[in-house]
Structures are given as structure tokens and as C-alpha cells.
Design brief:
The protein is an alpha+beta fold. It contains two helices and three strands; from the N terminus they run αβββα.
């Protein structure tokens, strides 16, 4: 079983960014497939233009930054 509905890497990167937007971690997202850096992520600091590799690393870092503390909290 997979949590991803899209099977290829590009689809998984897009889905990860959409999940970040849905959680309110990023303020906006625009994907322009014909551009050299097709991913436009809106953050409080401005719009960040990324290619697929940069977007995948951004998504990982954003998830760790947003949820890492919650994952480390003790339930005791």
C-alpha cells in the first residue's frame, strides 16, 4: 500500500507540495510545467522558484521543520 496517489517522482513531489499547502505550511503553490524551475512556492518571505530536485528537498525540510518537534514529544 502506498500513501501516494501518483506513481512517478514528479507526481510525488507535486503531491508533497500540495499536502504542505493543505496543511498551511506554505502559503501558495503554482506549477508551470514548461518552465526550467516549474515549482513556485509562496512563503512569507516571497516566492521561491525551484526545480524538481530542489522542490523534493524543500518538501522534506518543510515537513521536518513543521512536524519534527511534535514527533519528538514524549507521550508520557
Amino acid at each position: 500500500m502506498s500513501i501516494w496517489s501518483r506513481g512517478d517522482r514528479k507526481g510525488r513531489v507535486e503531491e508533497a507540495l500540495l499536502m504542505l499547502q493543505g496543511q498551511g505550511i506554505v502559503d501558495g503553490l503554482e506549477i508551470l510545467p514548461r518552465e526550467e524551475k516549474p515549482y513556485r512556492v509562496l512563503l512569507p518571505a516571497g516566492i521561491v522558484h525551484m526545480d524538481e530536485d530542489e522542490a523534493s528537498m524543500f518538501a522534506l525540510g518543510a515537513v521536518v521543520g513543521a512536524f519534527g518537534g511534535a514527533a519528538r514529544r514524549s507521550t508520557v
